Amino acid sequence: MSRERAKRVTLAPAKENIEKIKKVVEEGNYYGAQQMYKSFGVRYASADRYLEALDILHSGACTQLENGQVTCGTELAVLFVETLVKGKFPYDNNTLDRIRQIYQKFPRMSVPQHLELADDDDMQQLSEALGAAKTREEGCSSFLKAAIKWSIESGAHRTGSSEIHDMLADYLYSESPELDMAKVSYHFVRGKDPTKFASTLVNFMGKCYPGEGDLAVARAVFMYLALGNLRDANVLVDEIKKQVQYRDGDFPRSELMQFINYLLKTLQRDALPLFNMLRERYKSSIDREPIFNEVCTIGT
């Protein structure tokens, strides 16, 4: 009997081992459970029983994350994606659902606020909370970025699964201790939910420093245009205006926003002379960020 055949015979159904490991978790032995999840995952994959390996790693990632074991859960989540690659699984809705299930188990916790008059204990609490938030963000990001790469190689859109991009954008915005709207926007424009993106930008405009709101909106529009997606660029701006009006707020009135409004109308008409005139008229606003000039240059 071949070595591979022996492995198939000696391995019990994955479900039995999943139940066995869950008992270890219930005893609070997360480290021991982690070693078992990893070991069984490797053994099933080595025996070419990739579906069962995925079952074990999926269960392990979800279970560890449910119990607040972010580092362990992340490791198993990434192994889940690596097994998708090794098993040459195509991109489909079933696998996307399993990725989403793991994503939804990543904890979401608020960082303590209003610490202007905080004492040493409060500052220590803040430091620990920020460290934990960074661990969660890095863990979820590493998992979803690996999943995006797998999706590109396995039949999804050339820029990766739009659904996974939306997941990552949402988590980065809500959970990052050091918010970077450029990174958030990068993933939202590769997603398929400009309405959710608009809500995120409206929320950001309500708490950012003066001058950052219009820059974030303009950056988002230019990122859509760089991908050739004029439709969602228009949807985004229209939706922002609707939501701002609903909240009795004001849409940014800067020169940059004037340029964006004129630009979108011009691109719909495909009027190159007017486009060049706008570039010259709003040059100082366009110069605020490199991507603005880059996309305008492509447009000519």
Briefly, what is this?
With 300 residues, the protein is an all-alpha fold.
Q: Mind summarizing the main beta sheet?
A: none
Helix-strand category: mainly alpha
Query: What Rg do the Cα atoms give?
Result: 24 Å
- The backbone outline, from C-alpha atoms, is elongated
Number of helices: 16
Given as residue ranges, the uncertain stretches (5+ residues, pLDDT < 50) are: none
Helix share, percent: over 70%
Nearest-integer average pLDDT: 88
Strand portion: under 5%
Question: What order do the SSEs take from the amino end to the carboxyl end, as H and E?
Answer: HHHHHHHHHHHHHHHH
Beta strand count: 0
**Measured distance between first and last alpha carbons:** 68 Å
What would your notes on this structure say?
With 300 residues, the protein is mostly helical. The protein is 75% helix and 0% strand. It has 16 helices and no strands. Helix 3 runs parallel beside helix 5 and helix 9 runs parallel beside helix 11. It is elongated. The model has no long low-confidence stretch (mean pLDDT 88).
